[in-house]
C-alpha cells in the first residue's frame, strides 16, 4: 500500500495514470506530454510499475504502458477502510417490465 501512495504522491505520475485511463500509450508518447527528460520519465514509470499501477509490454521498438485498474481500486478501498469509511457497490438500475 505504501508503494501505491508513494506513486500517487507525484503530480506527474498522477497525470500519467489519467492519460493511461483513456488508452494504452507508448513511453515516447507519454514522455512527449511532459517538460522533463526521458530518464526522469523512465524513473516515474519505474515507480508506477513497482507499485503495480501500470504494466508494460514491448511492441517492436516501443514500450506500451497499460493502466492496472484493479491495483488502484484495491488501494483506494484499503485507504477508505483505514479511515472507517463504508463503501457499498453502486446499485444496479432496475429494469422496467411494462
UniProtKB/TrEMBL annotation:
Record-annotated HTH arsR-type domain positions: 1-86
Pfam families according to UniProt: HTH_20 (PF12840)
Entry coiled-coil feature ranges: none
GO terms of molecular function: DNA binding; DNA-binding transcription factor activity
Top-level lineage group: Bacteria
Keywords (A to Z) from UniProt: DNA-binding, Transcription, Transcription regulation
PANTHER family: TRANSCRIPTIONAL REGULATOR, ARSR FAMILY (PTHR33154), TRANSCRIPTIONAL REPRESSOR SDPR (PTHR33154:SF33)
Protein name in the entry: Bacterial regulatory protein, arsR family protein
Native source organism of the sequence: Asticcacaulis biprosthecium C19
Amino acid at each position: 500500500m505504501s508503494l501505491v501512495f508513494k506513486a500517487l504522491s507525484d503530480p506527474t505520475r498522477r497525470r500519467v495514470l489519467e492519460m493511461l485511463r483513456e488508452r494504452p500509450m507508448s513511453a515516447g508518447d507519454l514522455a512527449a506530454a511532459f517538460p522533463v527528460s526521458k530518464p526522469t520519465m523512465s524513473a516515474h514509470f519505474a515507480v508506477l510499475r513497482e507499485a503495480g499501477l501500470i504494466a508494460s509490454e514491448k511492441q517492436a521498438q516501443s514500450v506500451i504502458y497499460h493502466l492496472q485498474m484493479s491495483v488502484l481500486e484495491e488501494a483506494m478501498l484499503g485507504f477508505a477502510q483505514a479511515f472507517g469509511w463504508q463503501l457499498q457497490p453502486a446499485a444496479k438500475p432496475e429494469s422496467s417490465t411494462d
